[in-house]
């Protein structure tokens, strides 16, 4: 289930963030800022663990209303299950299929993920991450909207 971020989700989001981006994770203040400024565009994926009888936050996406994806991450134990695809699909539906995202040039997994969703590389931003360039990937299609 995908729903809007709640403040009570913050600790789970921080754990996911630290696992997904160990070199440069966002801190709690950054997430609270986005939750305040773009509450409708900070979404979490909730996994219902029927065996344990509880709900777990296993992924999130933050995006600007015009479609720029600020951040997306899925807990490593829940990757390759379509969660990231579902999160991006919601963002694309809300932005009429228009989105952009920066990805480290070395992050082949992320580049393949976005290309699979219909994104293409538009440009490169030198030293975007301080120690590495970024590729800017864009989508103007509705490949996963149907």
Count of β-strands = 7
Mean pLDDT: 92
How many structural domains are formed by the residues?
Answer: 1
Largest sheet: 4 strands, antiparallel
From the alpha carbons, calculate the radius of gyration and give it in angstroms: 15 Å
Instruction: Please tell me what the overall shape is.
Output: globular
Order of helices and strands: EHHEEEHEHEE
Relevant CATH superfamily = Gcn5-related N-acetyltransferase (GNAT)
CATH architecture call: 3-Layer(aba) Sandwich
Distance between the termini: 18 Å
Question: With helices defined by DSSP (H or I, 4 residues minimum), what is the helix count?
Answer: 4
Into which percent range does the helicity of residues fall?
25-40%
Keywords:
4 helices; Aminopeptidase; three-stranded antiparallel β-sheet; alpha+beta; 146 residues
Explain what the structure shows:
- The strands form two sheets. The chain has a four-stranded antiparallel β-sheet with strand order 1-2-3-4, with helices on both faces.
- The protein is of the alpha+beta class.
- Helix content is 29%, strand content 31%.
- It contains four helices and seven strands, in the order E-H-H-E-E-E-H-E-H-E-E.
- The mean pLDDT is 92.
- It is globular, with a radius of gyration of 15 Å.
- The chain has a single domain, classed as Aminopeptidase.
